[in-house]
UniProtKB/TrEMBL annotation:
Job of this protein: Specifically methylates the N4 position of cytidine in position 1402 (C1402) of 16S rRNA.
Protein name: Ribosomal RNA small subunit methyltransferase H
Pfam families per UniProt: Methyltransf_5
Name of the coding gene: rsmH
Organism: Kribbella jiaozuonensis
Residue sites binding S-adenosyl-L-methionine per the record: 38-40, 57, 84, 105, 112
GO cellular component, one term: cytoplasm
Length: 321
């Protein structure tokens, strides 16, 4: 199965519509910060024949598959094996002073979910890995088997918003003394048994929040995002646009805060006149977070939790557009 058959891009039409005004001019530079299997990028390359793509992914396997998918456009693409908070260094290395559009499609990719041996899916047994970059040093098994009960409870609560974090953490520590955890099925079963039966009746799979928390910890996802968004906004050219698609409230909250900071003045509220160069430099393009249509969710269930925010740069070096 090739990349196009394996991957249905989420909210594709809306993402293209939001970024299109910034990419319609010759020589526009588009950054796909989370290339994955290249579905979104393929649409932009097809629709905008003068766009140059710079695609980032931390997963070498994804880069290889996306490269095959985007081969017809090879003269207009540059693929970079890097995490998206490395954007400033990569742009400097490529001699790109500013970008016109950037897309973040956050979270675990379709390919990573579908490949059982990556260990992302709680519903099937696999090694406890969860590394988005298979060359990374720390696996989910390392965390489960070495973190203290307090640290496990902290990440389950902070990154998984798991109400029973302490119960799950205590049980993990007790069970690993008998035998270290190596596979997802045993951990998934432990989580299910640690959560009271009444609480298991709603909210989907009982292990969903625990697996999300471990994945975020393994890959440093929220810290990376906190560094990457300001860097991306700084790299935007005047009238450049940014779209961020997130899949849980933690990512969405970080995005909302980063955008909000750019839509406010950086002077005291009681100043009667805002000095030139201190006006907001961002304008929001979405009201709150936009969600997929019911039709899209029916056709592509993985779109169900998606939420999209977008903004455009309206000021550069003291000028308001």
């Amino acid at each position: 199965m090739n990349a196009a058959e394996r991957h249905v891009p989420v909210m594709l039409e809306r993402v293209v519509a939001l970024l299109a005004p910034a990419l319609a001019h010759p020589g526009a530079v588009f950054v796909d910060a989370t290339l994955g299997l290249g579905g979104h990028s393929e649409a932009f390359l097809r629709q905008f024949p003068d766009v140059r793509l710079i695609g980032f992914d931390r997963d070498p396997a994804a880069l290889e598959l996306a490269g095959e998918r985007l081969a017809p456009y090879e003269d207009r693409i540059t693929l970079v094996h890097a995490v998206y908070d490395e954007l400033p260094r990569a742009l400097a290395d490529l001699g790109v002073p500013a970008i016109d559009g950037i897309l973040f499609d956050l979270g675990v990719s379709s390919m990573q979910l579908d490949e059982a041996d990556r260990g992302f899916a709680y519903a099937q047994d696999a090694p406890l890995d969860m590394r988005m970059d298979s060359t990374g040093p720390t696996t989910a098994a390392d965390i489960v088997n070495t973190y203290s009960a307090a640290d496990l409870a902290r990440i389950l609560f902070q990154y998984g918003e798991e109400k029973f974090a302490r119960r799950i953490a205590d049980r993990i520590v007790r069970e690993r003394e008998t035998e270290p955890f190596t596979n997802s099925a045993r951990l998934s079963e432990l989580v299910r048994n640690a959560i009271p039966q009444a609480a298991r009746r709603t909210g989907g799979h009982p292990a969903k929040r625990t697996f999300q928390a471990l994945r975020i910890e393994v890959n440093g996802e929220l810290d990376v995002l906190r560094r990457a968004l300001p860097a991306a906004l700084q790299a935007l050219a005047l009238h450049g646009r940014i779209v961020v698609m997130s899949y849980h409230s933690l990512e969405d909250r970080i995005t909302k805060q980063a955008f909000a900071a750019g839509t406010k003045t950086d002077v005291p509220d009681d100043l009667p006149v805002i000095p030139a160069g201190h006006e907001p430099y961002l304008k929001l393009l979405t009201r709150g977070a936009e969600r997929p249509t019911e039709e899209e969710v029916a056709a592509n269930p993985r779109a169900a939790s998606a939420r999209v925010r977008a903004a455009t740069r309206i000021r550069e070096k003291g000028l308001v557009a």
